[in-house]
Specification:
178 residues; mainly alpha; 6 helices; 0% strand; flat
């Protein structure tokens, strides 16, 4: 259901925050620093949204059958291994020593591979593609995500330049009126 998939994304976000805050100091490079929720959001929520939008946009080009809601539900269900891995690695990082870091690395790597496998299977079923077409569509989805990030960065730079220009005009007008 849609509510359950939203719950999975929220839980993934919370598990990423917990991993960032509660991991042991041997396994956490940002131990003791304040939490930056913007970075966690840009590494958890933003890729989810970018994948869903890019996949939905490519559905039209590659004659897929998935709707935006179906894509969001499928991708959110695929994040379960990442959520479990975040929580398990958080607990293990407080118990293990530095020489046993390979266990945390293996768990994280396995969860990422499992996530990718589930994501490919979900796109295969959601859009009713063949396996090869699913792989090609996934590559184009990643390309679409990169293009959206590039356009957003260009737009942000343009807005910044316009604001600097307006600010300089305002300063010039106030200096001349004195």
């Amino acid at each position: 259901s849609g509510r359950l998939s939203l719950l999975f994304i929220i839980t993934l976000y919370i598990s990423a925050v917990l991993k960032n805050n509660l991991s042991g100091y041997l396994f956490n490079p940002s131990f003791g620093e304040p939490v930056n929720l913007l970075i966690i959001t840009s590494t958890v929520i933003l890729p989810f949204l970018l994948w869903c939008v890019s996949s939905w946009c490519l559905t039209v080009l590659f004659s897929g059958e998935g709707t935006m809601g179906q894509i969001m539900m499928a991708v959110s269900y695929c994040t379960i291994p990442l959520m479990v891995s975040n929580l398990l690695c958080t607990v293990l990082s407080n118990v293990l020593v530095g020489d046993e870091a390979v266990f945390v690395t293996v768990i994280e790597g396995f969860s990422i591979l499992w996530f990718v496998f589930l994501l490919v299977a979900a796109m295969l079923e959601t859009h009713q593609y063949s396996f090869i077409k699913t792989l090609v569509t996934s590559l184009f989805t990643i390309l679409g995500m990169l293009i959206m990030v590039f356009v957003a960065m260009l737009a942000a730079d343009l807005v910044q330049q316009v604001l600097v220009f307006v600010n300089s005009i305002y300063k010039e007008i106030t200096y001349r009126s004195m």
